[in-house]
Amino acid sequence: MHDLVKFLKLRRSLNSHIDSCKIFRASPGWFRDRVLGIDYRVDPDTPWEYSEILLSEAFHDGGRRDYFFVSLLEDSDGSGHMEADFGAGKFLREARPGNMIFGDEESVQRLQGKGPFHSSMIYIKKDVVHEYFQEASQGADLSPERMLSQSFRDNALRVLMKQLIYHFRQPAETGQRMVKEHLQDLILQRLTQLAGRPADIVSDTDRLRDQAIRAVIDYMHTHFIEDLSLDQLAILAGVSRSQFVRLFRQTTGQSPKQYLMGLRVEQARQLLSVANGRQSVLDIAQSCGFCDQSHLAREFRQVYGTTPAVYRRDQGKWFS
Question: For the chain, which domains are there?
Answer without folding.
Answer: 4-173 (2.60.120.10), 260-317 (1.10.10.60)
